[in-house]
Amino acid sequence: MAALAAVAALSIAVGTKSIPLGTVLDALDGRASLPERAQDVQFIVELRIPRTLLGLVAGIALGLGGALLQALTRNPLAESGILGLDAGAAAAVVIAIQVFGIGSLTGYIWFAFAGAAGAFTVVYLLGSRGRSGASPERLALAGAAVDAALFAVVYAIALLDSSTFDRYRLWMVGNLATGDLSVLYGVLPFVTAGVLLALALGPSLNAIALGEDSARALGANLNRTRVLSAVAITLLCGAATAAVGPIAFVGLAVPHIARTIVGPDQRWLLPYSLVLAPILLLLADVAGRLLARPGELQAGIVTAFLGAPVFLAIILRRRIVPL
Q1: pTM for the complete prediction?
Q2: For 110-166, what is each residue's pLDDT tens digit?
Q3: Within 10 A of 214 (CB to CB), how many other CB atoms are there?
């Protein structure tokens, strides 16, 4: 938690614009600053603090959602795209732009969230057909099919309408820079519900990790655990994607990093993922501001560029802990 607090402070203090530390402290404790620093104080209060809060909430949702997703599918390479969540959100955003003419992020988030939830519902219904019900393999296959179909719709609409493509690409790169508190307020109830549900599922997910027969012998209700896990994943990943756009790598890599620290026990893995993911996302956002001064790189681009080599290094050193 100390590391998370330090990274959050770094995110508020450091950016494309150099602001003295005294002015940053004035902005944080609400003290009146010198008149010539009033603009900097306003910049911190209205942009950097909301941006940091949005990064914290989105990071928590992505990390916890990724850990749940890997536990549910028992697939160490699972991330939100595998169950069609990203594709559903993207398709809904493109339709919102092209059909309804919506151009603001606050307008996108509800479409994106509904799209992610709708896509996952379809995936789960397809993956649970038959007597055996939902299994990791069936869910993954259904997710891949729905993901491909929805992204085909996205590409078709975006390529046929250049103005839609211009608006869509700003959302799809993964961006914390909006600093819009209304976005944060909109997704916060969903993320809170998802966090509480996810943390309560730790013991049941441990039983599932032993195998279906062993889980049943231990008294675990497989179908209930899978359905509740799916609901939590939809709430967490859907809300994060709706708020900041698709951000790759965080939900994939953070659970692996957490496993190297605490092992496969979900009762510890989930809380550690909850803390580590916002650290990673905020560090990527700060790096993006510093690397491209006076402009900046979006956090989603930085996580892909800097995170992928780190993840590959973990794989090559064979430090991945089995699920």
Answers
A1: 0.82
A2: 888 888 888 888 887 887 776 666 666 777 788 888 888 888 888 888 788 777 777
A3: 12
What distance in Å separates the CA atoms of residue 72 and residue 157, rounded to the nearest whole number? 33
Under-70 pLDDT residues of the chain: 30-36, 77, 105, 130-136, 173-174, 178-179, 307-308, 310-311, 314-323
Cα 30 to Cα 178: distance, rounded to the nearest angstrom: 22
Token digits for 191? 């993320």
Closest among 50, 49, 299 to 187, alpha carbons compared? 50
- Residues 55-66: pLDDT tens digits? 899 889 988 988
SS in 3 state form for the chain?
Answer: CHHHHHHHHHHHHCCCCCCCHHHHHHHHHCCCCCHHHHHHHHHHHHHHHHHHHHHHHHHHHHHHHHHHHHHHHCCCCCCHHHHCHHHHHHHHHHHHHHCCCCCCHHHHHHHHHHHHHHHHHHHHHHHCCCCCCCCHHHHHHHHHHHHHHHHHHHHHHHHHCHHHHHHHHHHHCCCCCCCCHHHHHHHHHHHHHHHHHHHHCHHHHHHHHCCHHHHHHCCCCHHHHHHHHHHHHHHHHHHHHHHHCCCCCHHHHHHHHHHHHHCCCHHHHHHHHHHHHHHHHHHHHHHHHHHCCCCCCCHHHHHHHHHHHHHHHHHHCCCCCCC
